[in-house]
Amino acid sequence: MAQKLARRGIYAGSFDPITLGHLDIITRASHIFDEVIVAVGVNTAKISILTVAERMDLLKKVCKGIRNVRIDSFEGLVADYALSQKATALVRGLRSEADFAYEMPMAQANRTLASSIETVFIPAGKEYCYISSSLVREVVTFGGSVAALVPPIVSRKLSEKMVKRKSLR
Ligand code: ADP
Question: Would you call 22 a catalytic residue per the annotation?
Answer without folding.
Answer: yes
